[in-house]
Write a structure and sequence with these properties.
Length: 191
């Protein structure tokens, strides 16, 4: 018997023209001229983004939006995400380095757009992971499932597999690994 897969609501992805309409709204709401070439914004869609719904790169005037998360969010959340990222650029344009991050300048830009300055989204991320993709079949419906990359380790009594995040902490010297059973150090397997 197969388990039922997690059902995620799918909403229509906002169009490119809607994205730029929201950006123009944010720029205008903050007292800037959206037709001024200094406030030019480039938008890219990313299939790799699975945690952040959007990101802003200040110096490039670039907004990246997640093609995996945005369809899972309501149209209002999609609008909020675009304006959120646009406000990052606007606060940087108006206040320089002091306007980066989620500080009071960014919050003021969000309020000027009539939105609460929320820092995090609540879009469901079930089933989204970065890593190698494998197909899983539930009741003859193919669903993409990802597996994070793992690395082999061993101690004197057994073998382990650890995620890339754990391995990175070990390599940086932030943590060491010891077996609870034999109390020897856990080391990476050769090859």
């Amino acid at each position: 018997m197969y388990a039922d897969p997690v059902v995620i609501n799918r909403y229509p992805l906002i169009t490119r023209s809607e994205v730029f309409e929201f950006i123009r709204f944010a720029i205008k709401s903050n007292g800037l001229n959206p037709d001024d070439p200094r406030y030019r914004v480039t938008v890219e869609w990313s299939e790799r983004m699975t945690r952040a719904a959007g990101t802003a790169t200040y110096q490039l005037g670039l907004i990246k939006l997640s093609t995996k998360l945005l369809p899972r969010s309501t149209p209002e959340d999609q609008r909020q995400t675009v304006i959120h990222e646009a406000c990052h650029l606007i606060s940087f344009w108006k206040y320089g380095e002091a306007g980066t991050g989620h500080g009071h300048y960014w919050k003021a830009c969000m309020r000027a757009c009539g939105l609460a300055p929320r820092r995090c989204h609540s879009i469901p991320r079930a089933g989204l992971r970065r890593g190698r993709t494998q197909a899983v079949v539930y009741n003859r419906v193919e669903i993409q499932k990802t597996q994070p990359e793992t690395f082999a380790f061993r101690c004197n009594c057994k073998k382990y597999t650890f995620s890339a995040e754990r391995v990175e902490k070990v390599l940086k010297g932030e943590t060491t690994l010891r077996c609870k059973r034999c109390e020897s150090q856990i080391v990476a397997c050769a090859g």
